[in-house]
Amino acid sequence: MQVSKRLKNVTVGGSDGWGVFYRSRQMKAQGIPVVELTVGEHDIATDPEILKAMHQAGLDGYVGYQDFQGLLQLRERVADRVQRTTGVLTNPDQVLIVPGGQAGLFATHNLTCDEGDTALYIEPYYTTYPGTIRSVGGVPCAIQAHAANGFQPDPADIAKVASNARSLLINSPNNPTGVIYSQETMEGIAQVCRDEDLWLISDEVYDTQVWNGTHLSPRALPDMAERTLVIGSMSKSHAMTGSRIGWVVGPEEAVGYMGDLATHTTYGVPGFIQMAAVHALDMGSEFEARIAAPFRRRRDLVMGVLKGQNVVRAIPAEGAMYAMLDIRLTGMTGEEFAMEFLEAHHVAVMPGESFGAAAGGHLRVALTVADDRLEVALRQLLAFATERAARAAE
Questions:
Q1: Which residues form the signal peptide (predicted)?
Q2: Which of 62, 112, 189, 198 could form a disulfide with 271 if both were Cys (CB 3.0 to 4.6 A apart)?
Q3: What is the 3-state secondary structure (H, E, C) of 196-211?
């Protein structure tokens, strides 16, 4: 039987750095305790109040087919939230409810790319980006953001490859680096998109996790609302990762076309989950801040542990739930370090190479365990790196 080339090519061959993750899960299955600092999964469950609302919505009859674009109540809440946080006038018809941010990535690239079209994205990148582009028949093209520049992308580098592209995907606050794109960076990106007639897809799922500076949605910049598609999600802001509930905000016509796609793919999102999301958003910004608070605290913990030494350098984490660590003085790749560290200390971290070559020689540490366990793991990592660096210097 033949399998489509498109699906065969979603995940290309070669190492992608996820061997560490798979090995950690294998160890856990064998009964070996592993501290997992790999996946961006909260160490708390979804709030019981949200789960009660989900249960009640099911009892109230929200169990049948729903509007493919999403329940009006939820689209109104999302539109209000986006308008309040960005200052951009937004109405419910500019909102598409999708089963999680990943579905938003799929919908927006289906909207913007035909078969063979080039779609740009910034490296380091969230791991599904290139595969999502390939899954719609697009050709992924990465633009490297460099550690020496604090992983801020250079708009001039984007402009060099933009003339034949259809879209640009960005992510701020950024996974994996924790960097928030500056106003200068965002304005430069917006100018390239206007000059080259690009769609801008802005993945903003970490918009509630801002520690330093200000998150700027490019949709708020001049003449950008008509060409920007914003992806949001309840996963990170409300600890609802398993509920699979998110949205895309964009021009009404574009949202309508993506609604047509939903008709032929997801057939909408379960109503009881949408009503739980309505309840969660009604809990307000104070609740969102409470969900985010542990990651701000743990970011500070990382900086405290690493203070006063120069073997492991933390990329200044301005947002998101990760710390990006530069371990190049050890003489090891991120993959080598992460795998050896896992075997030696049963602590799993993600190699930078999992997120593209630009993050080589780095590690991404998810701040997703209790503070005391995180501190022990970080001190083990620092000791391991110091020993390896001394060995490399001999």
A1: none
A2: 62
A3: HCCEEEEECCCCCCEC
What percent of the chain is predicted at pLDDT more than 90? 94
Looking at the predicted structure, is the pLDDT value of residue 239 above 70? yes
The count of other CB atoms within 10 Å of the CB of residue 139 is 17
Phi-psi category of residue 385: left, alpha or beta, with phi > 0 → left and psi -120 to 50 → alpha? alpha
Is cis: bond before 218, omega within 30 of 0? no
Q: Is pLDDT of 225 > 70?
A: yes
pTM: 0.96
Write the pLDDT tens digit of every residue in 94-134: 999 999 999 999 999 999 999 999 999 999 999 999 999 99
Joined together, the tokens standing for residue 111 give: 């909207």
Contacts by 29-32, CB closer than 8 A, 24 or more apart: 32/346
- Which candidate, 162, 173, 120, places its Cα nearest to that of 144? 120
Decide which of 394 and 32 is more confident: 32
Q: Which CATH superfamily is domain 5-45+286-384 in?
A: Aspartate Aminotransferase, domain 1 (3.90.1150.10)
Task: Report the phi/psi class of residue 14: left, alpha or beta, with left for phi > 0 and alpha for psi in -120 to 50.
Answer: left
Name the residue ranges covered by the structural domains of the chain.
5-45+286-384, 64-284
pLDDT at residue 192, as a whole number = 98
